[in-house]
Amino acid sequence: MRALYLLFLAGILLSFSASVPEVADTAIRIKDSSSLNIIGKTNVHTFTCKYDVAELTEPVKVDYTATGDAMVFGSAVLRLRNENFDCGGRGINNDFNKLLKTPVYPEVILGLQKIVAHPHIDDNYIASVALSIAGTTRHYDLFLKVTGQDNMEIKGVMEIKLPDFGLEPPQRALGMIKVQENLVIEFLLDMEEVG
């Protein structure tokens, strides 16, 4: 099972033969030492909405096919409940949940679709992901840094624009404080295989 775990984390992608695909499924647990933040700016200051990773208690089911230096995922979905983000205060938390249309769309959904080893940088990979916010899904490619063997860490950064998800950047104080449309999602996922 350890080999499956290493595969998921893309630690041995290059070791597979391109002619013999390997199909596998497992589950991973995201440890409390992980972090996931959404960072935004207004015309006044920068804010960070931190996800309470202790709320990620259920293992994440992962199934994939590995061929050559690529892994294609049939299932690898992380569901983040909007109410578990803390932006630093009740008012900004309410604004955040209103922006994300939490009563109708209570989760941000991040689905891993494919990983390919970076052709020039060891321990770096290019991932294709689907990100769903407020009922709209967009696809992104991003770089991942993978470290560790028994306990793997995956680090990445993704930049998004609110209008791409049909969201209007909020304003406060009669329009004097405006949230910029660009947000950055930073994550460090410390994981272990559970089955």
Report mean pLDDT, rounded to a whole number.
85
Overall, the morphology is globular
Superfamily at the CATH H level? Lipid/polyisoprenoid-binding, YceI-like
User: How many domain units?
Assistant: 1
Structural class: mainly beta
Low-pLDDT stretches = 1-19
Elements, N to C (H/E): HEEEEEEHEEEEEEE
* Overall helicity: under 10%
Biggest sheet overview: 8 strands, antiparallel, barrel
Give the strand line-up of the largest sheet. 1-4-5-7-8-9-10-13
CATH topology: Lipocalin
Number of H- or I-type helical stretches: 2
CATH class group:
Mainly Beta
Radius of gyration: 18 Å
Q: How many beta-strand runs? A: 13
Strand content: over 45%
Distance between the termini: 7 Å
State the CATH architecture.
Answer: Beta Barrel
Secondary-structure blueprint of this entry?
Elements (H helix, E strand, L loop, with lengths): L1 H7 L13 E9 L4 E7 L4 E6 L8 E8 L2 E12 L3 E2 L3 H10 L7 E11 L6 E10 L2 E12 L4 E10 L9 E2 L4 E2 L3 E12 L2
Antiparallel strand pairs: 1-4, 1-13, 2-3, 2-13, 3-6, 4-5, 5-7, 7-8, 8-9, 9-10, 10-13, 11-12
Mind explaining what this structure looks like?
The chain has helices spanning 2-8, 90-99; strands spanning 22-30, 35-41, 46-51, 60-67, 70-81, 85-86, 107-117, 124-133, 136-147, 152-161, 171-172, 177-178, 182-193. The protein has 195 residues and is mostly beta strands. It has a single domain (2-193), classed as Lipocalin (Beta Barrel). An eight-stranded antiparallel barrel has the order 1-4-5-7-8-9-10-13. Residues 1-19 have low confidence and may be disordered.
